[in-house]
Amino acid sequence: MQLNLRQLEAFKAVMETGTAIHAAEILNVSQPAVSKLIANFERAVGFEVFDRAHGRLAPTPEAVMLYNVVEHAFASVARIEQSAVDIRERRDGRLTVGVMPALSAGFAQRVATAFLARRPQVSLTLHGRSSQKIIESLAGQQLDLGIFAAGFDHPGVSTDFQFRIAAVCILPRGHRLANKAHIEPADLEGESFISLTMLDRIRSRVDHPFESAGIRRSIRIDTPMAASACAFVAQGAGVSIVDPFSAMEADDRQVAVKPFVPAIHFDMEVAYPSRSRRSQLVLAFADALREGLQAYPGLTLVESGPG
Fold first, then answer.
1. Quick one: how far is CA 132 from the chain centroid?
2. Superfamily, domain 92-165+267-304
3. Dihedral angle sign, alpha carbons of residues 36, 41, 43, 46
4. Does the predicted model carry a pTM greater than 0.90?
């Protein structure tokens, strides 16, 4: 006869309670059922585990030795069960996430901090990288999830969802235009302008409405990052048009943020490696990103994948 789990449960319950009656209550079975389980248990192990005397079951020395092993086994099962719960409820694991610079200066940290606060056993590595680098890392399965500028296609990357948000104009506090409800290209005629470098794909979108309207700006500074443009504006070096994520991180005591008309849209997407299965934890973080993005006015979901 082989041991089975129910016999082990009966043995453990009797060891811990001292009687078959109390063991039966714990196991929610009858006392005769417990007695039968113990008898079968003894036949399976090949020796007696209890001395029957005065209505109690006194463990033999062999039973005490065996109980230590059984208790350890049940503790291991309990750990397995808890681990399964943590995985199912997305409370355990490790994430590696890549975000484009515009989202790495505040937005990603806020989402990640709130996400981790509810999951103390989860660890996260956050990389701020260019969109091209994020895509390469996703395709190479070096990231679990990435957020980057839309428009890049790669067979190794699978999009979850895309979103669109309008650019804003940032001005030094006290600027002549700071009290306007919105800024138009003509308002910036001749203004000192802090622009993103020509290597940035967003540069052409920002330049287009000015070129279409024949408006000449004085481009005094080129910088590769929107956060740097915000810092220049805060120092009074000029005005700029940036994504709202970067603008939100600027010091509102030094920078005024205004809508820009006509709207210049930034399209971004959240994606995964296409050749690896997404864990429940990764999917939960994507949901947290969706929730965090909804806090930004004017943001629209362009396309939603399977999640």
1. 21
2. Periplasmic binding protein-like II (3.40.190.10)
3. negative
4. no
